[in-house]
Amino acid sequence: MAFAQGAAHCGAAVFIRSRSTLTSAQPVHAPVVVWFRDDLRLADQPALAYAAATGRPLICLYVHDPQAAGERPPGGAARWWLHETLRALDAALRERGGRLLLMQGPESEMLEACVAASGAAGVFWNRRYGGNERDADARLKARLRARGLEAESFNGTLLYEPWTVLNQSGESFQVFTAWWRACRRAGDPPPPLPAPQRWNFQSLPARLTQCALKLDDLGFAPHKPDWAGGLRETWPAGEEAALERLSAFFADDFEAYADERDAPGLAVTSRLSPYLRVGALSPRQVYAALKAAQHDVKAGSPASRETSAEKFSSELGWREFCYYQRYHYPDLAQRNLRPAFDAMPWRRDARGLRAWQRGLTGYPFVDAGMRELWRTGWMHNRVRMVTASFATKHLLLDWRAGEQWFWDTLVDADPASNPANWQWVAGSGVDAAPYFRIFNPVLQGQKFDPRGAYIREWVPELASLPDRLIHQPWKASQEDLEAAGVRLGVDYPLPVVEHELARARALEAFAKTGKARGKPAGRGQKESE
Ligand SMILES: Cc1cc2nc3c(=O)[nH]c(=O)nc-3n(C[C@H](O)[C@H](O)[C@H](O)COP(=O)(O)OP(=O)(O)OC[C@H]3O[C@@H](n4cnc5c(N)ncnc54)[C@H](O)[C@@H]3O)c2cc1C
């Protein structure tokens, strides 16, 4: 903490000393600043491409602001992932003769300090979509422009800007299918931009290097204890790793995607979400790869390619729709989008919450998911739905409690996709699953993991149970349990709640919310900065 304060102070001092240079005309050799945020890559990075095209020397900046624009700071797993991705970006820039300048402190103060100390002629960034972030970016852009600097923002995160797709009344869409159809009618997004061919970096003045931090100083990586072993084994970081994952998915798994994407034990989904989250990869790059695969005869039969392409592009669509919601409902992570849910009698159940978090609910499919999450920082989508349903319906926990746990433990924890999906599962969101659709965790497991491969991997204490019992060990006879070496209630818990009772309790609670189904109230349509 002392270090952070020191860095902030250092930045402010530089800013004040150099303020006068900002008002004069910028000399031709003045550098430009690329402010990296959720776009930690070199290719299809519109702000970087624009900056490089000016021909001016580049300063590549990343600012860690623990309270960035009043938004929620990243959770533990996301911080580790950010650390690794920043390291990879810095290495990529160094290979090209530059570096990533790291600063810590209030972000607009740090940015203006960087501008002042370097005499920069312009600042370029890709947009963010949180309400506070957009307001902060708009203010910053106005301040920089008022001082005669060029300040420009770009779309580096989405296929379709959220204010461009509205219904016939000029309002935001509430239903995914109608919204996605409208997006598709708008045509394909532009193709991805290549990484700059020529690199010209500004050598950093001493005033700036004094304020620069080392990556380890940000404190993103765990030390004592180092709990990130499972994350490290699972996720190679950076743009190169992201592009490899992208190619591997389309070469190996794409054809099976439509049929097998719901089976967590088969691992055919792309696993691109962590890379998309930090922008090591852009959605336009993914979309372009999808289009190429659709026409690639090596990617399977035409029919399977078509259905896989349809499914996969609609999943990318869901990502976009989550951002659309974040844009139109800036308090997506805090407020029930359907006000009727304000009357929901959520339970305060610390024991239940803890059992769920630790993967000890007694429902093997749920527990496998929660343990996969804890170990790898990721969970398969089907299992995310089942575990979130279990938390909000079987345990009647407020969706915000579950969302917060995912926020802390997911490497892909996303300010749009996480709350939007939690509200979808809970029933409180836009175009949400009806609350009365309550997943049966046993049937879900039997359907999507029929041989129990996924459970055997993540709940090894049950590995020797036969397939017919692995989803419901409480139905096993004493003989079966002994043969499998399981002592129920000792090696593995009995269910924390009985399914039918939990279901009835959830429906009764839901009835208390009344039938009111108000239209979610959003904020006006205004472009992002
Ligand atoms: C309760 C819950 C919480 C979630 N939290 C997050 C989160 O914090 N961050 C996150 O990226 N995703 C989240 N998701 C969505 C989804 O589970 C993940 O995006 C997906 O599992 C990532 O795996 P993949 O890359 O292999 O997906 P694929 O099936 O290969 O899909 C390709 C891409 O499409 C996007 N996508 C797929 N499904 C969804 C979806 N339902 N919503 C939004 N985008 C989607 C992702 O960017 C994904 O990488 C959540 C889902 C649920 C049910």
Automatic annotation (TrEMBL):
Cofactor(s) this protein cannot do without: FAD; (6R)-5,10-methylene-5,6,7,8-tetrahydrofolate
GO molecular function, one term: DNA binding
Top-rank lineage group of the source organism: Bacteria
Segments forming a coiled coil: none
Catalytic activity, reaction form: cyclobutadipyrimidine (in DNA) = 2 pyrimidine residues (in DNA)
Limits of the Photolyase/cryptochrome alpha/beta domain: 30-159
InterPro entries associated with the record: Crypto/Photolyase_FAD-like_sf (IPR036134), Crypto/Photolyase_N_sf (IPR036155), Cryptochr/Photolyase_FAD-bd (IPR005101), Cryptochrome/DNA_photolyase_1 (IPR002081), DNA_photolyase_1_CS_C (IPR018394), DNA_photolyase_N (IPR006050), Rossmann-like_a/b/a_fold (IPR014729)
Pfam families in the cross-refs: DNA_photolyase, FAD_binding_7
Positions bound to FAD: 257, 269-273, 312, 412-414
UniProt site (Electron transfer via tryptophanyl radical): 346, 399, 422
Cofactor details (free text): Binds 1 FAD per subunit.
Entry EC no(s): 4.1.99.3
Record key words, sorted: Chromophore, FAD, Flavoprotein, Lyase
Cross-referenced Gene3D superfamilies: 1.25.40.80, DNA Cyclobutane Dipyrimidine Photolyase, subunit A, domain 3, HUPs
Any one Gene Ontology BP term: response to light stimulus
Family membership noted in the UniProt record: Belongs to the DNA photolyase family.
Protein's name in the database: Deoxyribodipyrimidine photo-lyase
UniProt source species: Paraburkholderia pallida
